Amino acid sequence: MHLLVLTPTFFWILIIILFSFFSFFPGIGDVFGLLLFMAPLITFKRIIRKKSTEQFSCMPYLISLLQCLLAAWYSLPFVSPNNLLVTVISAIGIGLEATYVLIFLIFSPKKGKAKICGYLFVVLSIFSSLALVSMLAFHGNRRKLFCGFAFAAACIMMYGSPLSVMRLVIKSKSVEYMPFFLSLSVFINSTSWSIFSLLGKDPFIFVPNAAGTILGAVQLILYVVYRDKKGVKKDEINESVDQMRTGKLQDGKLVDIQNENANP
């Protein structure tokens, strides 16, 4: 079923449909944005049920929280007028991402809690500093440019956060840690907001979401390529994820594991 969805024709039809929807219903972008923010609910249901964060990383949710904070600030009337839709979805995103981070704080081990608190302090410090500088040092269009660049950079970071998982998919030949519907949500959401920004002629929304569209498409292509392959064992994938996050991924060992599975 997924193979039928991921044909080139599907991509073009989807873009045309989204463009038509935005022409008549501009608020459809908020619907797709909400679906993207709610996509991790299955993951957090698992975390709460097992009372453990397992191998999941809090970093993507911290980056998403920063992106939502900067997007909300950028969309305020005294920075960038006529961006009410961005304000609404950003406010919802702040609430959801803050909830996800809180769940990580509750169920992470003691050492993990300290690390998350440190990263959260950095995120809030970055946002507070940028907001303060934009108010005191910039006015009018310069303030919009300054906040727009900051928002675009954070948005690209958010869409780029799955790159390490994409690398793992290629090496392990498994889509265990790259859910199909999350990748599809990224593609649809970023494509819809790219179209919204073209209609509204806002480059600060278009550039990061265009990058998100490309990254989302790459994730879907990887899913098609590796979805039917057995890959390495689940325990070895978990070990590789842990090593990747600590910067100690042993490429040779993973290759040996793949060879062993290929030649039982």
Give the topology.
Layout: H1 2-5, H2 8-24, H3 28-38, H4 41-50, H5 59-74, H6 84-107, H7 110-137, H8 141-160, H9 163-172, H10 180-200, H11 203-226, H12 234-245, H13 251-262
Helix pairs in contact: 2-10, 3-6, 3-10, 5-6, 5-7, 5-8, 6-7, 7-8, 8-11, 9-11, 9-12, 10-11
Helix content: over 70%
Write the element-wise H/E pattern from the N-terminal end onward. HHHHHHHHHHHHH
Structural class: mainly alpha
| CA-CA gap between termini | 31 Å
Tally of contiguous helical segments: 13
How many beta-strand elements?
A: 0
Domain module count: 1
Please compute the radius of gyration using only Cα atoms: 20 Å
Reported for the largest beta sheet, the result is: none
Q: What is the 3D shape?
A: globular
> Mean pLDDT, as a whole number?
76
Ranges where pLDDT stays below 50 over 5 or more residues in a row are 1-5, 240-255
Portion in strands: under 5%
Brief descriptors of the model:
about 260 residues, mainly alpha, disordered N terminus, 13 helices
Describe this structure in words.
By secondary structure, this protein is an all-alpha fold. It has one domain. 79% of the residues lie in helices and 0% in strands. The chain has 13 helices and no strands. The protein has helices at 2-5, 8-24, 28-38, 41-50, 59-74, 84-107, 110-137, 141-160, 163-172, 180-200, 203-226, 234-245, 251-262. Helix 2 crosses helix 10 and helix 5 (59-74) runs antiparallel to helix 8. The longest helix has 28 residues, at 110-137. Mean pLDDT is 76; it is low at 1-5 and 240-255. InterPro entries: SWEET, SWEET_rpt. Its main location: membrane. This is Bidirectional sugar transporter SWEET. It is found in: Cell membrane; Endomembrane system. The chain crosses the membrane at residues 12-37, 58-76, 88-107, 119-139, 145-165, 177-199, 205-226.
